[in-house]
Specification:
Elements: E1 70-75, H1 86-97, E2 103-107, H2 119-128, E3 137-141, H3 148-161, E4 165-167, H4 174-187, E5 207-212, H5 216-233, E6 237-241, H6 248-257, E7 263-267, H7 276-285, E8 289-290, H8 298-316
Parallel strand pairs: 1-2, 1-3, 3-4, 5-6, 5-7, 7-8
């Protein structure tokens, strides 16, 4: 819906009426009857390709090459249920949106243990279903911030299986993450759902702590997202970690120094990579309410698709 301010003030000047149904214009006698004269020239539409946009964009090519590599979601799960819940939802949406795409999920192997749902077993199966030497999979870590342990485990899995696989990363995507985090906070009643129009919505937070896992590099990436989220909410937002410094308690102390009394936690995680109990304990320790993890948010799925499409375009680009 457009705002009234989007339209010019006043009405356009009236043009002389031409060739109306009430005042038919005589046709020239020299013109053949098969070529009627129109009052205005008719612009012929030109065929053009329309790039889908917005939430319905399809980053994965609509037409995949035969034997295209599988999209393998590698899940760094802290529990045994990492392939259910959010992971299953993400995989389902990817399959529905891209019927020709071979979407698989796998747990990242822990200590090289035998696991039929582990990354090594799934990689080997994907390679067995494709021509020898062909790219078998594009591995997308199901993460939104860097996680060095996961990257190392994936390199080891590729080396151990000897398959032709590439790793795509869902990093440097702060604007989309800030939007998704805003939605999760709004869902929990902890942020305005529409900042631009400034609806009068009562919220229960004056400051936000962006919680992540994965070490110092993950906190650094989340800090950029925190700046963008702060701009969206017009509230102070700080990044903190469950497994390194700064901790949630330290971030809460900084917000307290700023005069913030009501704090909310925004988990900057998809879900399986973080212990839910640890998030709840961190929130309770600082007396904060907590939004849900990102889960199968549309922006998360878009980022995963973009990561796959980027690697696929590199595979298809001939070497120069």
């Amino acid at each position: 819906m457009s705002e009234a301010s989007d339209f010019p003030v006043g009405l356009p000047a009236r043009r002389p009426a031409r060739d109306t149904s009430l005042q038919p214009q005589p046709q020239p006698q020299s013109e053949p009857e098969s070529a009627p004269v129109t009052a205005f020239p008719v612009r012929q539409p030109h065929a053009r390709l329309v790039q889908p946009g917005g939430r319905h964009r399809r980053p994965v090519p609509a037409s995949l090459p035969e034997g295209a590599p599988a999209l393998l979601l590698a899940v760094p799960s802290v529990g045994d249920d990492g392939l259910t819940g959010a992971t299953a939802e993400i995989a389902t949406v990817l399959r529905v949106d891209n019927p020709a795409l071979d979407v698989r999920t796998a747990r990242i192997d822990q200590g090289g243990r035998s696991d039929p749902a582990g990354i090594r077993a799934v990689l080997a199966d994907a390679a067995a279903r494709r021509p020898a030497g062909a790219p078998s999979a594009v591995i997308i870590p199901q993460l939104v911030t860097p996680y060095p342990e996961t990257s190392r485990a994936l390199r080891e899995a590729i080396a151990a299986t000897g398959v032709n696989a590439r790793v795509g990363e869902v990093f440097n995507t702060n604007a989309l993450l800030a939007e998704a985090l805003h939605h999760r906070l709004a869902d929990a009643g902890l942020a305005r759902a529409d900042r631009v129009r400034m609806f009068s919505i009562t919220t229960s937070a004056d400051g936000i702590i962006l919680v992540t896992v994965g070490g110092e590099e993950a906190v650094g990436t989340a800090s950029v997202t925190a700046v963008l989220l702060a701009a969206r909410l017009a509230l102070p937002v700080l990044a903190a970690s469950l497994d390194t410094k700064p901790s949630v308690e330290e971030a809460a102390a900084r917000l307290d120094d700023m005069g913030v009394n009501r704090i909310a936690l925004a988990p900057c995680v998809i879900g399986p990579e973080a212990d839910p109990a640890a998030i709840d304990m961190a929130a309770a320790a600082v007396g904060a309410k907590c939004a849900a993890p990102l889960g199968a948010h549309g922006n998360v799925i878009k980022l995963i698709s973009l990561a796959y499409g980027q690697v696929l375009s590199q595979l298809e680009t001939p070497a120069t």
